[in-house]
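Service request form, structural biology core

Requester: graduate student, group of Dr. S.
Request type: structure prediction, single chain
Budget code: on file
Notes: please return the result as structure tokens.

Sequence provided:
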Amino acid sequence: MTVDFGVQVVRQFEQEGDVRCVETPGGEVVSTLHRGPYDRLSGAHTTIHDWCRKNGKVIGGFSWEIYGDWTDDPNKLETTVVYLLDV
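Core staff response, request fulfilled:
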């Protein structure tokens, strides 16, 4: 599995060593906002997969998570889970 870890930037930049500029793919997506501890994040993924099955959607080859601002209170953590759909 190929995994990219990144931060949002305001412009593209040239690769330097192992640091390179990547973009999330365009297209139709399905997403959900998970609020709570990271150890319960799998529930958000399960919800998306279940929704896709029930609604005749096919998940494509990419997914990503966008982590909100850090807080010491795990119940206030927010993570957006996104799946690209095959259309």
